[in-house]
Every structure is written in C-alpha cells, then in structure tokens.
TrEMBL record:
Statement: the UniProt record of this protein carries the keyword Glycoprotein: yes
Keyword terms of this UniProt record: Glycoprotein
Protein name: Phytanoyl-CoA hydroxylase-interacting protein
SUPFAM superfamilies referenced in this protein's UniProt entry, alphabetically: Fibronectin type III
Signal peptide (residue range): none
Pfam families per record: PHYHIP_C
Record domain Fibronectin type-III: where: 10-119
Any one GO cellular component localisation term in the record: cytoplasm
Family recorded in the similarity comment: Belongs to the PHYHIP family.
Domain of life according to the entry: Eukaryota
High-level lineage: Eukaryota, Metazoa, Chordata, Craniata, Vertebrata
UniProt KW Glycoprotein keyword: yes
UniProt function note: Its interaction with PHYH suggests a role in the development of the central system.
Organism listed in the record: Austrofundulus limnaeus
Gene, per the UniProt record: phyhip
InterPro entries linked to this entry: FN3_dom, FN3_sf, Ig-like_fold, PHYHIP/PHYHIPL, PHYIP/PHIPL_C
Length: 338
C-alpha cells in the first residue's frame, strides 16, 4: 500500500469557536501525515432537531459541503444560511482526491453540537435601516396603554400589590433579536387612530386597558433602544423598542447589544421638551408601523387608570405571542440567518 492510499485517521477533538449568528470556525486534530496529504474536507451540518442517525449512508460521498483543505481553524459561513440561536450538529471527514477523481476518505468524526448566536450590533443596524424606511410620518400621542384580561389586573392587585412586574420577553419576531428570552419588561402600545388621535377601540389582548401618561415612560431619564423589525405574513410591520430607565439593569443589558436611538430625533418614538414655560412636552409615534414598546422596569397601576375598552376585543390568536417572523419578506429581513 502506497502512502497516498494509506487509510486516513478519523478527525478527533473537534472544536467550534468564534460563533456568530451566521458563521463559526472549526478545527480538529489530524496526524502530521494526514495534514500534509489531505486535499479536501467533507463537512456535514444539520439542525439538531432534524438529526438523523443514519444520514451518512454513503461514507465516501460528501453529504453537505466539500471544502478544499485549508489551515485550521477553518471559517464556515454562507454555505447553509445559518439561523441565529439555533442548535446544530456537525461532523467531519478528511479526504484525499485521487488521480481518477475519486476520494480516499477517513471515517466520520464524532458529532459535535453547538448553538449559533444572537444578531450582533451590525446586524441590528441593518434591521434598523430597513425599519426606518417603513416608519412613515410622526403622529402626536399622549398615553401609553396596555390591554389585558380582567384576570391579569386582578392578579396584579391581589398578588403584586398593584405593581405590573417585568416579564421575560418571548421569542416572537426575529429569531436573532438579543432581547428574546433574555430581557424582562412590561409591554405597552402607543399607536393611535388616524381620525381620532386616540388609542384604537379594539385590542387582541383583552377588554381592559391600562393607560398611563406618556411622560411617565418617555422622558429625559429614559434611554431608547431599537430591538426588532418584523412581520407575520401580513402587509403591516412591527417595530420593537425598549425604554430603559438610565442606569438600571435593563439599560446596561441593552447598551452593549442594541442600537440606541436619540429620544428627540428618530423615526419611531420621540420626546420634545417644552419650548416655553407652561407648555407640555410633545410625544410622537411612527404612523406606518405597529410599535411594541417594552419598558424595562415595573409600572404601578396607581400611575394610570384601568378602563373597559369601547370596542370588541378580538381573538387571542391575533396577538403576537411567540409569533414567527416571515422569512420570505423582502421588507424586514436582512442578509444573515432568519
């Protein structure tokens, strides 16, 4: 048996590093002899939940990707359109291409599992740039509001002393948003109807509405962050913003992960200080997107009022809880994994 035809050792000690939302670097151990003669790597990558133990039916046929042998660690990006926050499993074969075009291959390595990351700041900036194009003109508003069922407000009064405590953000919207499943807050709306300038009469979240003066949540002691832009197979789009009191835990979390917006000048939600004595601040919201505003702190019912809405609340199925983003929408998707 010639050196070229000698069996290749099985890749071992696989390590994954520098993982982002859509890329990673991979390395493994090979003998010096194999390193010198390997011409290609065969890489099999699949989502963990879809892993099939019999996926390597033909051990000498590359199942996913053939890459020319390069010094390790090797960067892997773009080939599979990796999704953020997704568990994957990967296995490696090394190979030597023969003069007749066939490959001499090693055994498949052990399967290694890893999880991709959240959107980085650069990805969120891409998403923010897209959201700016859909925001529309600014409209004045005066209150933030939160609709829920009577049971929710009864629980807040009975068990929480009237304090609406921050809850963990669900996984709705873009899968890579850094706040999903990590940031606590209380969601509010502020969109108004064109004809009245008031909150809409209907709500998919429940028949009772808590209203609070805009100034309680939006003022110079608050930092404003952009967190997401998405749709759910519909013509209208959602923008998720975070209002975090300066210096709080929520503010510290957002500062390193989300683009900060200027309170007085941005396309989504603005605060304008009074220009003259006796005047009130002016608050404005974007007209052509639905704003979901996460206040990263507790809010007491005594700061506002709970009232019955005048319209008919709609089915809960119309809410956005854990709703999945439309991956095919050209308006709200960016060039990295969904």
């Amino acid at each position: 048996m010639t050196a070229m035809n000698a069996p290749l050792s099985t890749p071992c000690n696989i390590k994954i590093c520098e993982v982002t939302c859509d890329s990673f670097r991979i390395m493994w151990d090979m003998t010096p002899e194999d390193s010198a003669r390997a011409t290609h790597y065969f890489i099999d990558l699949s989502r963990k939940e879809n892993r099939d133990p019999n996926r390597f039916k033909h051990r000498d046929v590359p199942t996913k990707l053939v890459a020319k042998a390069v010094p390790l660690p090797m960067a892997v990006r773009g080939h599979w359109f990796l999704s953020p926050r997704t568990e994957y499993c990967v296995s490696i074969q090394t190979a030597v291409k023969q003069p007749d075009g066939d490959y001499l291959v090693s055994e498949w390595s052990q399967v290694v599992e890893f999880c991709t990351g959240d959107y980085a700041m650069e990805h969120l900036q891409q998403l923010l740039d897209k959201a700016k194009g859909s925001a529309g003109r600014l409209l004045k508003f005066s209150v933030f509001y939160r609709n829920q069922h009577p049971e929710y407000f009864d629980f807040v009064r009975r068990e929480c002393g009237g304090l609406m405590r921050p809850a963990l953000k669900d996984n709705s919207g873009s899968h890579g948003s850094p706040i999903n499943g990590k940031l606590h807050g209380v969601f509010f709306s502020c969109n108004t109807e064109f004809d009245t300038g008031l909150p809409p009469k209907d709500s998919p979240y429940g028949p009772l509405r808590f209203q609070i003066s805009a100034g309680h949540l939006l003022n110079p002691n608050i930092c404003l962050y952009f967190a997401d832009f998405y749709c759910m197979y519909t013509a209208y789009h959602y923008v998720v913003l975070v209002l975090a009191p300066v210096g709080t835990e929520g503010d510290a979390f957002c500062r390193s992960r989300l683009p900060m917006l200027d309170l007085t000048s941005n396309p989504f939600l603005t605060y304008a200080a009074p220009q003259r004595q006796g005047e009130e601040p002016v608050y404005c919201h974007a007209s052509d997107v639905i704003l979901e505003v996460l206040f990263a702190g507790p809010v007491h019912l005594d700061q506002g009022a709970v009232q019955q809405i005048s319209g008919h609340h709609q089915l809960m199925s119309l809410t956005t809880a854990d709703a999945k983003k439309d991956p095919s929408c050209k308006v709200c998707n960016i060039s990295v994994g969904r």
